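Slide 14.
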Amino acid sequence: MKLREPGICGVDVATGQLIGATNRYVKTLDDLAGLYEDEAAFRDLQRERGDALVYEVTDYRQSVDAGDLIFGVTRMRPGKVGREYFLTRGHIHANADRPEIYYGESGRGVMLLESPEGEVRTVHMSPRTICYVPSFWIHRSVNIGADDLVMTFAYPADAGQDYAIIEETGGMRSRIVDDGSGGWTLVDNASYRGRSAARIERVFRGVV
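Slide 15: predicted structure.
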């Protein structure tokens, strides 16, 4: 049996980068079209800032084999579309029984989680906090602060990501918005359509 070689990476909190990463991807405003409740405010922001970067991910992966790990750093810029804070696309793992952890490096954020049945949970993220995302939970990161939200993450290498589970229901059940008093609050997503019993069963059978 050929063993993999050990690896080492660094976390540059100031730049929100994984030093020694093997992979990088970015999401810009154009990539996030259709995710926000206020489409007019989104178009105004596009005209003002162009196709600006919203978040980026740098990660380290030796393989996507079962038993291996992928870890990395995500950095999300601060901002709002109307009253709604900048967010990631969100996903459930393609192999939905795989969990994930996030470690807060800098900034303030909220991890928004939703079960296949539509139950909602929130976890506040700040420096030196760890969020455990259990198996079968859809999850999305939201930057509620005035600075970059930087988090380190790790998940099983064969987890994969599935974004369709959010798209097909008109988004997640809840949105995180400015409460008008310097904080945030959870509101219903008026476009949310829910999932059928058959769709939910497919998730728990690992067929997303």
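Speaker note: The domain at 10-204 is CATH 2.60.120.10 (Jelly Rolls).
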